[in-house]
Amino acid sequence: MSKGDKVVILDFWASPFCARVKIALEEKDVPYVSNEEDLFGGKSELLLKSNPIHQKVPVLLHNDKPVTESAIIVSYIDEVWPSNSLLPTCAYARAQDRFWADFIDKKVFDGGRSIWASNGEEREVAVKDFLEVLKHLEEALGDKEYFSGTGDDFGYVDIIAIPHSAWFLAYEKLGDFKVEDHSPKISAWIKRCLEKESVKNVLPDPEKVYQFVLHFRKMSGLD
User: Fold this and answer.
1) I want to staple 59 with a disulfide (CB 3.0 to 4.6 A). Which of 10, 63, 82, 211 is the partner?
2) Rounded to two decimals, what is the model's pTM?
3) What is the distance between the alpha carbons of residues 163 and 18, in angstroms, rounded to a whole number?
4) Considering the chain, what is the average pLDDT of its residues?
5) Which of helix, strand or coil describes residue 112?
6) pLDDT bucket at 186, cuts 50 / 70 / 90
7) Strand arrangement, sheet containing 65-68
């Protein structure tokens, strides 16, 4: 990174997708500025101009050039700042990492939202579906320390996955279950990741996320 590089994230504190970008930058020791967006009171002109298609965070502004979609941003960061690579060198292992990142993107957040945005029987079904997703992830993790590559080092899939854990408390409290009871290996992996400075520095307090979810439920007329 040259001294003139300017790195800005259009951010929202509770977003697991924004957290991915910040963890990746922390892993690479890249200095950045976080611009908190007011997603409910009025999005900034900079956000609307930088991401006109989706109009959502995160956006990475690298020397004022916007990069959007969190998984793409993490890959971009890995290419632009190649030291401490996040993806494995083996093409097959990289393909496997991208498969699980895609699985996480399609299943985890929406599965959690189905829990907190529902009530009654619908929520019971959502909890079962969410636990099934965790079961698949637990099988993918197996006896490895981390998801990425050989499992020896914290990498791409871990960065894609770990921010979602800040929302698990909300899912547990509303869904009346404990992740640890159903997926002990995932629970142990979360604790392992939280020992890393890059994760610890970025992830929001799960209790604060839970209160945010409760507030959003009230605003949405779910309570």
Assistant:
1) 10
2) 0.96
3) 9
4) 96
5) helix
6) very high
7) 33-36, 7-11, 59-62, 65-68
Taking 90 as the threshold, does the pLDDT of residue 30 lie above it? yes
Q: Which domains does the chain have, with CATH numbers?
A: 7-80 (3.40.30.10), 91-219 (1.20.1050.10)
Quick check: 213 and 174 in contact, CB under 8 A?
Answer: yes
Strand pairing class (33-36; 7-11) = parallel
Angle in degrees, CA 182, 206, 23, rounded to 5: 95
What's the pLDDT score for residue 4? Answer: 67
Greater pLDDT, 40 or 134: 134
CA distances 7 to 59, 72, 135, Å, are 10, 16, 37
Match 């099934």 to its residue by tokens: 132
Q: How far apart are CA 149 and CA 97, in angstroms?
A: 7
Please classify residue 15 by burial: count the beta carbons closer than 10 Å to its beta carbon, then call 0-12 exposed, 13-18 middle and 19+ buried: buried
Q: What are phi and psi of 66, to 5 degrees?
A: -80, 140
